[in-house]
């Protein structure tokens, strides 16, 4: 779903809680990274994850 390099994908962690991500999809169909700990969703723009807590959306 996302075009993030596998080596980078392995080391990325949620800036809010430090947990790993899973691949997800926003309501509009765009790719997101979903935190496995705090349920925040981070958008991916052109293969680059935007890991800003202020711009994340709650999945809950």
Describe the protein.
By secondary structure, this protein is mostly beta strands. The protein has 1 helix and 5 strands; from the N terminus they run H-E-E-E-E-E. Strands 1, 2, 3, 4 and 5 form a 5-stranded antiparallel sheet that branches. Strand 2 (31-35) and strand 3 (40-45) form a beta hairpin. The longest helix has 6 residues, at 6-11. The protein is globular. The chain starts with 5 loop residues before the first helix and ends with a strand. The model has no long low-confidence stretch (mean pLDDT 91).
Summarize the structure.
By secondary structure, this protein is mainly beta. Helices cover 10% and strands 33% of the residues.
Number of helices: 1
Radius of gyration from the alpha-carbon trace, in angstroms: 10 Å
The major beta sheet can be summarized as: 5 strands, antiparallel
Order of SSEs: HEEEEE
Give the strand tally: 5
Overall geometry comes to globular
Helix content: 10-25%
The fraction of residues assigned to DSSP E strands is: 25-35%
What is the arithmetic mean of pLDDT?
Answer: 91
**Which residue ranges are poorly predicted, with pLDDT under 50 across at least 5 consecutive positions?**
none
> What is the CATH architecture term?
Single Sheet
Give the CATH level 1 class: Mainly Beta
Give me the CATH fold name: N-terminal domain of TfIIb
Number of spatially distinct domains: 1
Q: Structural class per helix/strand content?
A: mainly beta
Distance between the termini: 21 Å
